[in-house]
Amino acid sequence: MERALISTDSVPVFERPERGAPLVTEMVVGERLGVLDESDGWLQVVVPGHATGLDPRGYPGWARPDGLVEAPGWDPDLTVVAPNEAGLPLGALLRRDGGGARLPGGAVVTLVPGMARPPGEAVVASSVGISRELLGLPYRWGGTDSTTGMDCSGLVFRVMELLGIRVPRDADDQFGRAPFKSREGWKGARRNDLIFFGKDSVTHVGFYLGDGTYLSEHGSSGTVVRGVDEDPYWGFARY
User: Fold this and answer.
1) Of 1, 17, 43, 130, which is least surrounded by CB within 10 A?
2) In what order do the strands lie in the sheet with 213-217?
3) Where does residue 235 rank: exposed (0-12), middle (13-18), buried (19+ CB within 10 A)?
């Protein structure tokens, strides 16, 4: 990597260096990426915090430089764990500054109780409880921003992060790398397990609620509750 940049806003990472290319993942405030190359106003990047089987260094793609800054010594000691008046998404990384918190661009926001805690310190909640708070959030392919929209694996990625569990960014890797996974019927799944769908491979994921239902980001419906039998079941996993 030539250099590291920090996001000062939500920054989309695209499959190709062109407008209209598919979004593959999305950084939120305070996350770091590594710049591999530059071409015609585009940065070829990897996002180390978004684990993937595509590249051991992090999620690969292309980003515009907007919303990215050089911030040597950026050492966040807080992560956003709840909706807040500052409009910061879940997983945003901040630096404590007196009674508030500093963003990588220099702005300071007010901290309120329960808004943030040290990175990696799990919230006292369940995956189902957290994701229920996001019901109605729009679906965005490649999105991980809880204020504007996520895709199914982006929802899982951010919710599990709040529980102190780092999972890969994409649904197929989330199944493949789980310490426990099963291709048996969904009736063996427990509440809060990840439940996966797909015909020839894993293409969709959500949180199992019990009684044959699950919660997920799902196309035009956004974050919704669906029946497991409404989609082609693949398996379930537990972290």
Assistant:
1) 1
2) 180-182, 233-238, 194-197, 204-210, 213-217, 223-227
3) buried
Query: DSSP characters for 89-157?
Result: PTT-EEEEETTEEE-TTS-EEE--TTSEE-TT---SS-HHHHHHTTTTPPB-TT-EETTTEE-HHHHHH
Angle (CA) 46 51 54, round 5°: 65
Helix (H, G, I), strand (E, B) or coil at 27: strand
**51 φ, ψ (degrees, to nearest 5):** -65, 145
Domains in the chain: ranges and CATH: 3-69 (2.30.30.40), 78-117 (no CATH), 127-238 (3.90.1720.10)
Q: Are 157 and 194 in contact (CB under 8 A)?
A: no
Give the model confidence (pLDDT) of 62-119 as tens digits: 999 999 999 888 999 999 999 999 999 999 999 999 889 999 999 999 999 999 999 9
